[in-house]
Amino acid sequence: MTSTSSKPHDIQSLDTLTGGAFTASTSGERAQRIREWLASNPAPERVQDVFKEMSGRDKGAARPLREKLDELRRAKDQEAIAVEWTHKAEALLAQPKLNIADALAWQRDAAKAGAPLSREPLAGFKFRLAERVKGIEDLQHRAQVHREAAVLLAQRFEVLSTKGWRDAQAAEEALRADVVHWQQQAAEITADGNWSSLDARFAPQLESSKAQLLVVSDAFHGALAQAQAAAADAAAPLPPVPVWADELRIARGGAPEAAPAVTQKPAAPKVDPEKRAAAQDAVQTALAKLEQETAEGHGKASAGAAAALRAVLKEHGRLVDAPLEARVHAALVAAGELEGWQRWSADKVREELVAKAEGLLKRPEGQALGGRKMQETLRSLREQWKQSDQGGVPNHALWKRFDEACNEAHKVVEAWLEKVRADAAEHRAQRVALVEEVKAWAAEHAQASDLKAHNRALHQFADRWRDAGHVGEKVFAELQAQWNEVFGAARAPFEAAQKASVERRQAMIAEAIELGATPVLRIDAVKALQQRWQAEAQSVPLDRRHEQKMWDAFRAPIDEAFNRKSADREKASAAMSEHDRHVLNASKALEAANSTGDAQKIRAAVAQLEAAMRGEAPPPAPKTAAAEPAQAAQADGPAVGATEVVAPGQAAAEFGESAGQSPAPEDAESAPSGVPAEAAATEADLVAPADGADPSARSDAEAAEPSSAPAAPPKPAPKPVIAVRGDDRPGNKKAEPAPTGRGGKFGDRRDSRGAPAGRPGERTPRAGDRGDRGAPAGGGRFGDRPPRFEDRGPRLGDAAFRAQREALERADLALRKLAAQAHGEALTQVLGAWEKRDAAQLPSVQELGRAVTPAVRSSWSQALGSAPSSQANDAAEALLRLEMAAEVPTPAEQLEARRALQLKLLTRRGDPAPAQTWGQDAGKVLAAAHDAASARRLQNALKALLRK
Question: What is the pTM of this model?
Answer without folding.
Answer: 0.30
